[in-house]
Amino acid sequence: MRNIILFIRRFFTLVVFFVLQGVCIAILVNYNKTYEAVFANAANELSGRADKQYNNIEYFFHLKETNRQLAEENARLRNSLLSNFDGPGNNKVLQIDTTYKDTLGRVRQFSWLPAKVVSNSLSSETNYLTLNRGASQGVTKDMAVVGPDGIVGKVILVSSNYARVMSLLNRNSKVSAMLKKGSYSGIVEWDGGDPRHLILRNIPKSAQVKQGDTVLTSNLSGNFPPGLMVGTVSKIESEQSSNFYTMKVQTATNFFTLQFAYLVENETWKEQKALEAQTPKNQ
Question: Can you name the CATH fold of 175-251?
Answer without folding.
Answer: Thrombin, subunit H (2.40.10)
